[in-house]
Amino acid sequence: MSELVTGEAVALELRPAKLPSRALAVLLDLAVAVIAYIVVTLGVVAATASLDEAAQTALSIAMFVLLLVGGPIAVETLSHGRSLGKLACGLRVVRDDGGPIRFRHALVRGLIGVIEILMTLGVVAVISSLVSARGRRLGDVFAGTLVVRERIPLARTGFVPPPPPWLAGRFSGLDLSAVPNDLWLAIRQYLMRMQQLDPQVGGRMAERLATDLAARTGAPAPHGVPPAAYLAAVLQERQTREARRAFGNGSAAGGGSVDAGAGGGPGAYGPSVMPTVAPAPAAAAPPSHAPYGTEVVAPAPHTPSDDRPSTGFVPPA
């Protein structure tokens, strides 16, 4: 990603085009321009057959300049940086500040492109693109432009993997009132993108967020629990409490259950080995089929006595 700063001091993250895609776009543009040049030249030569040789040579040079130099300049100016080849490859020419190019930018790129692409068969353009950090050729450097990718595959960033099943309800007694909203937002963004991060970088980020969260709640991550799983479990506890306040006490029954076969799975936070924890009371786990908005009451344990039959039948009072 290349960070560009606009005139309003807004940072834009753009993805510079790679050399293979740029070379393919240039080849497509050159093929279209050469075909148009040949067709127009044959038509002009047939129409001006009665002229002398000097006039025909002048017309040929004019056709070369207009079609192979002026054509790409006009197309990039009118389309704001999208030629036919770039449109086919999903590329676009933009200014250094991320804005659309104008005629002067296209003119400088086209004139220098004659030297580094047409006269040197693209050798100079390839070398300058390989040397540049953002893959810019000499025309882009002098014009102040950059070729970026417009069609970027969408990543699955809107899904937060659920915590492991053995952490469900583990942090129900935490005090989350001191955790600021920006820390919750940072935790959620990390959990959505942790599969795209480098493992070492993601691990350090999870440890830092877990340390900040533990300092706010006063309860560090249990021994043997990965920091990412700790963050996911606390975030799910917060979401469960918000759902309980919004929809009633019974919504906790739906928010507390975790599907082990969901998209994240227990493997998303490291090994799925369940650490040794104290078993929770049986009455604390409501049935998973309880509807939303209803209060779940655990049945009282039945203790047989001497004056009642042991068959399970209880006479009416």
Q: Can you offer a commentary on this structure?
A:
This protein is mainly α. It has 10 helices and 4 strands, in the order E-E-H-H-H-E-H-H-H-E-H-H-H-H. The strands form 2 sheets. Strands 1-2 form a two-stranded antiparallel ribbon. A two-stranded antiparallel ribbon has the order 3-4. Helix 1 runs antiparallel to helix 2, helix 2 crosses helix 4 and helix 7 packs across helix 9. The longest helix has 29 residues. The chain is rod-shaped and about 95 Å long.
Question: Helices and strands in order, then pairings?
Answer:
Layout: E1 2-5, E2 11-14, H1 19-47, H2 53-78, H3 84-89, E3 91-95, H4 103-119, H5 123-131, H6 138-143, E4 145-149, H7 181-193, H8 199-217, H9 227-247, H10 251-255
Annotation, overall tally of beta strands: 4
What is the H/E string?
EEHHHEHHHEHHHH
Mean pLDDT: 75
Distance between the termini: 76 Å
Q: Sketch the major β-sheet.
A: 2 strands, antiparallel
> What is the share of helical residues?
40-55%
Dominant shape = rod-shaped
Task: Tally the helices.
Answer: 10
Instruction: List the strand order in the largest sheet.
Output: 1-2
Question: How much strand?
Answer: 5-15%
Which secondary-structure class do the elements indicate?
A: mainly alpha
Low-confidence stretches: 1-11, 250-266, 277-314
Task: Please compute the radius of gyration using only Cα atoms.
Answer: 34 Å
What are the key terms here?
rod-shaped, 48% helix, two-stranded antiparallel ribbon, single chain, disordered N terminus, 10 helices, 317 residues, mainly alpha
